[in-house]
Amino acid sequence: MAPTPPRTLPASWYTSTPLHQLERRAVFFKSWYLLGPIIKFTPGSPVFYEFAGINLTVTATSSTTPNRQPKVEVVEDATGSPLPHHTTRTGLLFTTISPTAAPDFHTFFPGLEETLSAVDFTARPYRRSIAYEGHFNWKTMVDGYQECLHCQYTHPAFSVLYPPTFYAVKNHRNWSQHFADPEKPDDGLFLYLLPNCTLNVYGGGMSLFRVCPTEDPGTTRMEFDYFNVDEGEKFEEYYRFVRQVALEDYALCETAQYNLERGIYAEGVLNPVKENGVAYYQQRVLEMVLEQHQQDRQQARAREAKVAAAAISAIKHEPASHGNSIPNRTFVEASA
Fold first, then answer.
1. Which of 50, 267, 280, 296 has its CA 20 to 30 A from that of 313?
2. What reaction(s) does this enzyme catalyze (predicted)?
3. Which segments in the chain show pLDDT lower than 50?
4. Among 313, 310, 290, 314, which Cα is nearest to 302's?
5. In sequence order, what are the residues at sequence separation of 6 or more whose Cβ sits closer than 8 angstroms to the Cβ of residue 335?
6. Domain-located, residue 218
7. Which residues constitute the domain of residue 317?
């Protein structure tokens, strides 16, 4: 009997405000985020980020680590509290947005540091960042990144360099590695990092983007950072190429979100080979949301039990009065 193919998340997961708010606690508060190569941060120039409503500031200090990387501080703006962060051996900075909700870096991303060790992320100078609003759910963009079935038609220029015929995705715990050609595993480094970050290294350039949810489930903020060994016109040529790919994805995501919000698309089947990256990350989101929902229910039941116990205690200690003492005692005994 053939295995049952994976199915997509229902359209409501891209449009529902209550589900969107639940994802914030279930997924985003419990994750790690790629902020960028450590060379992006210089003393005296704080860099600001926002994830799921949490604003944070990254500040580089004048001191350095034993391997000569600048030390940084990551602080939540609202409380001034330091946030757990991690700098990889090859110079990538990651952070959480909660002091306690997320596990440690290596537990959340097992094996990732070993993969990252193949690239010196301080070798490509920081060139440019841009940000703009996207009219789609954050998962709509991740869906597109996690497969390349659309590449031949949507990204003709990219498909010349990396033919989708050979494209493959290997999933790990909370991250995925993309291979333009599995026979050439060292030809670039393309990573998806749950929930909303990507890292793309090929040639002399490197880009990363974050697709950040807003209060509206149908609106995101897209943030891009670009690094390159080249400058001047050579960098601009690279920049035009990667921006063309990004804008092609943007148009595709807006159309997909339009169809989701109007009921044109509700739920479907995923190709278990060509869309295994989509199936994997959606399953992780589902697992984390269901786990949070179960925790919420348990906490709600505990609160209800506490309120009921307090009410019973108050009745037990209520002074007896003529005409209602026996009914009260009967009620308490029946409740106990």
1. 296
2. choline + 2 reduced [2Fe-2S]-[ferredoxin] + O2 + 2 H(+) = betaine aldehyde hydrate + 2 oxidized [2Fe-2S]-[ferredoxin] + H2O
3. 323-336
4. 310
5. 312, 315
6. no
7. 294-335
